[in-house]
Amino acid sequence: MSHSASGTGRSSTVASPAGQSGGTSRSGRPLARVFLRASGITALVCWALLLVWASFGTGPSSGSSGVYMIIGTVGSVLLVAVVIATAATHAGLRTIIAALFAAVVAAVLGWSVYSSMPEAGPGQFITHRAGVAALAYVFGVVGGGLLALSEFVVEGYSGGRAPAPKQLRRKVGVLASAIVVMLAAALAPAMQLWAELANQDVLVGDAAATGSATDPGLDSLADLAGVGRFTDTPYGLLRTDHPAEPTPQAVTMLDPATGAAVWYHRRWNWLSSQPPVLSQAQDLVALTGPRADNNGDFQTRVLGARDGDEVATADFDGSPGVLLGLAPDRLLYTKDKSETFSVYDFGGGLEWEAAMPDGCEGTAAQLAGGRALVLADCVPAPDRSVARDIVLAFDLDDGAPAWQREIERGAVVVPESFLVTEDSIVLDSRIEHRVTDGPFSARRFEHQLIAYAIADGAERWRVEDQTFGSTNSSACGGTLHLSQPTSTAASGVTAGGEAKAQVPASERRTVQIIECFTAKDREGSWLGVMAYDADTGERLYRRAVRLGFTPLDPEVARGWAAVLPDNRAMLAADLSLDPTRPECRLYEVTEGRASEVPFAAESADGTPIPANWCHDAQLSPLGTGAAVSFVDEDGTRGIVVVE
């Protein structure tokens, strides 16, 4: 029958394409297989690209991030190329074997990188490239697994195979690749952040966790201390942990009364290029320096002095110079041998830049009262016949010169005697007079105290011709101290997190010169104090205590004295003339009356205090008393509080 023949013919015509194609295993891949294959290949490519970036695009480094990383990168790139070529030419078993082999190699190499990452600590840190490399090998494991899995996708029985449209397969492949690429783009900076956090050690107000109060061995804080001096703050003593070379950005705020840590902030992969810097109000502290594995990456981190919270982080492309001062939203740097200085905001943006007068170099600076205040040491120049010290003030907003004052010719202002309050500059302009000649010549220091208004540079008061006596030690040049560096009494926190009461302060603010000298009318050496009213310059009193051993280091001489908020001066002295047989004493000068203060023979934990504790002592104001720090026999600093 014609209709039967016609029906049979139609049946044969419909079935013929399937028969002629030789099966749909190649052209009829389901979308799941396309997605897995595209994802796997893209992940393998990301493996190679991330490794190349980790090895060559994240700055110099060392260890597992160095030569071994480069060797692994070259081998990994070649392996990825072989796997992709195999997948393109030999679908099936060969692709499965190649993909699984790549996944195993990536897993082994990834574990090698991860296991080589050190525990964070002094001189040990996880580099950015190590973190990115570990992520790269994760993509290798995932990529090899997905590519091998794509060859196992079951397509169903032959009669149910239907080829997906070519355009749809392309869209699925592009989607899969885009997802993997976006994951790589998002996870790479996340791994860098992880490396930063892994190297960071931050704790606030929990002494139990630091181990300094309940379990001294828990965190080994004392082992990190070294013998570096403390930075005095209203909230405690700021200690630089592990002050070796290079010094990491690692500091601990100690409660002097207990020796416990109030807070600490440590970033082992960032170096400190200089000691911590305090703001004029002493409520902010700045740590500045480059990354340990990339000197081109430079940051200044601003912390709250009270609680250690991070206030801001300024990023720089290379070093901006030496940090001289900071305000609530500004950072002041000097560079080019202190001949220029720059002011940046807390984001690292340059606000303005200014140059010193010809032949001048900045030696000290501070930001206060809307001014950038700079002390400059100037050599003779065309417009300057002799060397002079100059005080310059610039508007903090735009850098416009505000005023300039020259110090008396022949006088010197050391950086430690350039003091800034909220509205005034108080400085000690001193002249050194030779009294005798010879290798052990005596000299006498003549002091001239001057106070300038920050706003316009007007001279508020001046006290001239202030002298103590002659001395044979240049370290005895005199140090200047303010009884109240800031206008408001600070309230700190104890190691347990509880607020401390405000520090009582006298209604009168004083400025005091403390100097060691030889008296004309008395035998031996003396450590003298002259106190002045900080508002008027009126001299209030002069007093001295007996001194035997004379310090030869200016830093030691300054550490032997502290002026408290209630205007008392605390003095340390060694009565012996033999450094091997010290007789250390502690004195208090109140309203011109000197008296000895009993000093404990043991620390609070029962550890004996060395007999020569005063030789490297540092006295610091502490509420109604003073904190006396000294070097223990184990090389760390101990603290004793006296009222």
UniProtKB/TrEMBL annotation:
UniProt-listed InterPro entries: PQQ_rpt_dom, Quinoprotein_ADH-like_sf
The keyword Membrane is assigned to this record: yes
Compositional bias of kind Polar residues: 1-27
Domain Pyrrolo-quinoline quinone repeat: 251-463
Keyword Transferase: no
Bilayer-spanning residue ranges: 34-54, 66-88, 95-114, 134-154, 174-195
Region Disordered, residue ranges: 1-28
Alphabetized UniProt keyword annotations: Membrane, Transmembrane, Transmembrane helix
Record-given protein name: PQQ-binding-like beta-propeller repeat protein
Organism: Glycomyces tritici
Organism lineage string: Bacteria, Bacillati, Actinomycetota, Actinomycetes, Glycomycetales
